[in-house]
Amino acid sequence: MNNFDRIRIGISLGVLLACALAERLLPRRVPVAAAGQRWAANLSLAALGVLAVRLLLPITVVEAAYDAEAVRFGLLNQWPIYFPLKFVLSLLLLDLLIYFQHRLFHWSPALWRLHAVHHTDLDLDASSGVRFHPAEILISAAIKIAGATLLGAHFLAVVAFEVLLNATALFNHANINLGPLDALLRLVVVTPDMHRVHHSPSREETDSNFGFNVPWWDRLFGTYRAQPREPHETMALGLDGARDPEKLDLFALLGRPFRRAA
């Protein structure tokens, strides 16, 4: 494990613990499913995804960006750009890439079968931010490697982006009541209330609020939805036809994309 991995994991664990504490102190909703089974399944999916990436991909996204910069490959490496500007542009373009990647996983029936695992969670809390099928994590990592290379993103910006992406995914899935602070925060970051709309079983609401880090892309491309039709406290979460907690354990989630009725 390199220093970058240690930093990213350390920050992610810190954010996870901070969100879990905030969820106890300021909960937004009353859970409907057993937390122990959900957390075990969600964290196990994340661990299997990390293992898949390490075993099956020959290079990390940070290494890809570093190698591209060394040979001046990629869009942002074609001109001499002042480092702070290149850093910010790299962050923004990578975030835009993830926004469109998320939309792709909703648009493509084959990719949706994988991404639907994320949407089967009957509650949302910080652990939901890592609830992704290992195959989706693998595909996402490959897309980020290709994107960082073609964009010519600065490798330090890639480091910062990976840390931010992990941290914001934990935060915007958290079961935290931000009160009036939500309206202010969602000007610059995706908040839990904003992202919760995306986890409605209604396809109209599911196909909105695709952003992970910033809300600007949803506003720019017309996919922003301020509030769900039902109140946040009582709105349904998850997917219709997948509401039995006993059928949402780790092995069921791993096999879900490959079942005919997924």
Q: Describe it for me?
A:
Helices cover 59% and strands 0% of the residues. It is globular, with a radius of gyration of 18 Å. It is built from 12 helices and no strands. It has one domain (3-258). It is mainly α.
How would you describe this structure in keywords?
globular; mainly alpha; 262 residues
Please state the structural category: mainly alpha
Described by the principal axes of the CA atoms, the overall outline is globular
Helicity range: 55-70%
Mean pLDDT: 95
Distance between the termini: 36 Å
Gyration radius, rounded: 18 Å
The biggest sheet amounts to:
none
Proportion of residues in β-strands: under 5%
User: What's the structural domain tally?
Assistant: 1
Total number of beta strands: 0
Task: Tell me the series of helices and strands, N- to C-terminal.
Answer: HHHHHHHHHHHH
User: Which residues form runs of ≥5 with pLDDT under 50?
Assistant: none
Count the helices. How many?
Answer: 12
What's the helix and strand layout?
Elements: H1 3-25, H2 35-56, H3 61-70, H4 83-107, H5 109-119, H6 134-151, H7 155-172, H8 181-185, H9 192-198, H10 203-206, H11 216-220, H12 250-255
Helix pairs in contact: 1-7, 2-6, 3-6, 3-7, 4-5, 4-6, 4-7
